[in-house]
Design brief:
This protein has 68 residues and is mostly helical. Helices cover 81% and strands 0% of the residues. The chain is flat.
Length: 68
């Protein structure tokens, strides 16, 4: 399974870490890049990982809805 989808994810996490140290408008630009890279890595992820994430979302949503 190719792991090239991890490249934008790691880049996004690194820029997210850097944006925590910034206080000005650069932090907003970096945060936007972080969100976009997360979306790109989810799109590029293999179907097995996407299915696993979908199952996790369904289970957590079901637990959340039962509590309320």
């Amino acid at each position: 399974m190719p792991m090239f989808f991890l490249v934008p994810l790691v880049a996004g996490l690194a820029t997210g870490y850097i944006s925590q140290k910034c206080q000005d408008e650069v932090a907003y630009i970096i945060s936007t890049f972080t969100v976009l890279s997360l979306i790109v890595s989810l799109v590029l992820a293999p179907w097995q990982i996407q299915t696993l994430l979908l199952i996790v979302v369904f289970v957590s949503t079901n637990r959340f809805l039962r509590r309320n």
